Amino acid sequence: MNNNLQFLNLLSNKYPNRQAASAEIINLNAILALPKGTEYYFSDLHGEFAAFRHMVRSASGIIRQKIDYIYEDTLSLEEREHLASLIYDASEEIRRQKMDPTVDYQLWCKTNILRLINVCKEVSRKYTRSKLRQKLPKDWGYSIDELIHTPEGTHKERYYAAIVESIIETGMQDVYILQLAKSITRLCVDKLHIIGDVFDRGAHPDFIMDYLMEMNDIDFQWGNHDIVWMGAAAGNWACTANILRMNIGYNNFDMLEIGYGINLRPLTSFANRVYANDPCTKFTPKVLENNIFDQVSSETGAKMHKAISIIQFKVEGQLIKARPNFDLEHRRLLHKIDFEKGTITINGKEYELNDTNFPTIDPADPYKLTIQEERVMNNLQASISRSPRLHKHITFMLSHGALYKVMNRKLMFHGCVPSDEEGNFISLQFDGEFYSGKNLFDYFDRAVREAYYSRNDSSSNNMNGDIMWYLWLGAKSPLFGKDQMTTFERLFIDDKASHKENTVGYYTLRDNKEYCEKILEEFGLDPLTSHILNGHVPVKIKDGENPIKGGGKLFVIDGGISKAYQKTTGIAGYTFIYNSKVMMLAEHKPYSPLKKDGTQKFHQPKITTLEKHQKRLLVKDTDQARVLEGEIESLKTLIEAYRKGIIKEN
After folding, report:
1. Lesser CB count within 10 Å: N end or C end of the chain?
2. How far apart are CA 163 and CA 169, in angstroms?
3. Contacts for 290 with CB less than 8 Å, ≥ 6 apart
4. Residue 254 burial (CB < 10 Å; 0-12/13-18/19+)?
5. Helix or strand or coil: residue 484?
6. DSSP class of 258
7. For the chain, what percentages of helix, strand and coil (3-state, to nearest 5) are there?
8. How far apart are CA 49 and CA 320, in angstroms?
9. Which of 585, 579, 524 is CA-nearest to residue 549?
10. Can you list the positions of beta strands (E) in 358-409?
């Protein structure tokens, strides 16, 4: 009773009398009666900032549908396309209009502010006035709200025209248009789910994280590429070597040195010295995007790539030996090299190496780091550990994320549920206990958080940091789900048969409806009404693969946002969209930015309706309702306490 009274006293600070508490109950009941907000699900962003930002800004094609709905009979196709471009990339469209001598810029601004207001009005219909104001920009929310709620055909029209005139006269039209465009996106995208892999391959995961941190309602389901960055930030050398090898290999020097302030000079000096006479041809970084600030030559990049790769294999070999329970002995390969013949024997088969220059490997002790290599790793790890921007991003991903999420009858996780070929959940033993299914996810989730937040604790044995590395590439990791990660083979062996990474049972079993229903039940969901959302393994549309699995119970939404995968998939990513009326899948084409002359047209994704709800879903039908209903009950109790005089009204 005392605890309840203490809680009610705290609640009374916000609602000091019966009138205030009753008003909030009315507001909460109104919210419960609203249509369910639209949820957007993405996966495997892999640093492709521009493409991802366009998907969000365009609400994956939904904004263009709204524009056509409003203006199909009054604006030409070209005018509608320009209005869409203004919302998708307002800064560039404004710049282009200013540069066009045939455009009356003030008239253009007046016209498009009103058009944007109409779009804003359309996408805000499902919100209460109070929630709308929460989503609008702080400095401009009042005027936008007033314009949105203009009663048509009334004497107030002059008042609203005066608002637009005032915006122009004060020279704030550019800012106002930018804020309107941003508001339209925020109103369309009520909640954003990122089902893993923000990092690696693409040039700017740092930009993506900055962008996501501006969002109102976002969550992450960590992918293996996210976990390996978390592990590096937690101080795990194997994770650190991996993130550096990958991003040097993809020519992401701007992101590493400028974005996260990771000082690569010790590695550069070491690599140029050790491999001075070695062209390291097989290690030449991929040129997917040019660096603007840190343009490393391909020759130096290749030497750095080789140097950090050898360090990685040494550090991983040491870790595998120290953690026999990880069952990764087959991935210790350096001692299997025949340095005289220039070959390596893997699984009983001898392969010729395409590079036999190993000046830092001692055949008698191949996993021992040289003094110089150890110094390089100490410097690199110190630089990562002191990167404020990186830790800001990792902390945000931890506070807003988990290994899985259950929300509104959707189970989201990046990779797989480790299972054998018969569909039984595989058990792993840690600290004398066995974990499988949901319990395994929960164990790993706790281990990841403990590893990161105890990184500066000298008493920690860093076991959890090693688990983060296991989650990155372990055969029974729910974030990987392949029998091996063949990094060494891809770098040193030309025979592609050795590069094969076989997926585990889950990826075959997920075609089976009963197996998908078993997973849903394991995570406490009703298999008749719930679905699974996955990423991790790209859907090869060009080869006839289907993103819909398990008789419609599971959706794979990795369609290749990453440029590195688009030749494999034949498309450029998916968005799963779940609103009050339907579930939809948007299939994207490769993104191209608006050209300076405005000739580039943004591709409208192919949107497929997956399922129509029998009745329109309201907020009261969602998980949010449980929270709101709990608040209503607390407020009713507070009102009763006021009525009985237990708590004094103010």
Report:
1. N
2. 10
3. 251
4. buried
5. coil
6. I
7. 50, 10, 35
8. 35
9. 585
10. 401-402, 404-407
pLDDT band at 463 (very low <50, low <70, confident <90, very high): low
Least reliable range by pLDDT among 18-32, 70-84, 290-304? 290-304
Please compute the mean of the pLDDT values over residues 175-203 and round it to a whole number. 93
Mean per-residue pLDDT over the chain, rounded:
91
Please measure the distance between the N-terminal and C-terminal CA atoms of the chain and give it in whole angstroms: 23
pLDDT band, residue 396 (cuts 50/70/90): very high
**DSSP-assigned letter for residue 575:** E
DSSP label at 75? S
285 Cβ contact list (under 8 Å, min separation 6):
248, 249, 250, 251, 296, 298, 301, 302, 305
Q: What are the CA-CA distances from residue 30 to residues 131, 344, 535, 632 (Å)?
A: 11, 69, 36, 12
239 closest CA partner among 393, 74, 381:
381
Band the pLDDT of 1: cuts 50, 70, 90.
very low
How far apart, in Å, are the Cα atoms of 10 and each of 240, 250, 629, 631, 632?
46, 54, 19, 13, 15
Q: Find the length of the chain.
A: 650
Q: Which of 93-97, 330-334, 337-341 comes out lowest in average pLDDT?
A: 93-97
- Residue 524 — left, alpha, or beta (φ > 0 → left; ψ -120 to 50 → alpha)? left
Residue 243 and residue 228 in contact, taking contact as beta carbons nearer than 8 Å: yes
Question: CB 4: neighbour CB atoms within 10 A?
Answer: 11
- Determine contact, residues 553/516, Cβ cutoff 8 Å: yes
Say how far apart CA 119 and CA 108 lie, in whole Å: 16
